[in-house]
Design brief:
Elements lengths: L5 H20 L4 H13 L1 H11 L4
Helix pairs in contact: 1-2, 1-3, 2-3
């Protein structure tokens, strides 16, 4: 398991919160939004990278 702390942890927290807000504001279906939020919360680093690449746009 990857431990994240200090400045990198704070930066990751800010990025994940940003991704969750942008996902909630997107035009994606409710199910897609829920899946993305759960993925971001359970796997923050990998989830954020996947969100950047494949996440809902708009």
């Amino acid at each position: 398991m990857i431990e994240v702390g200090g400045f990198f942890g704070l930066l990751l927290l800010i990025l994940v919160v940003y991704a969750i807000i942008k996902t909630a504001q997107s035009d994606a279906s409710t199910l897609a939004k829920v899946i993305w939020v759960v993925l971001l919360l359970l796997l923050p680093v990998l989830g954020f990278i996947l969100w950047l690449l494949f996440g809902p746009k708009g």
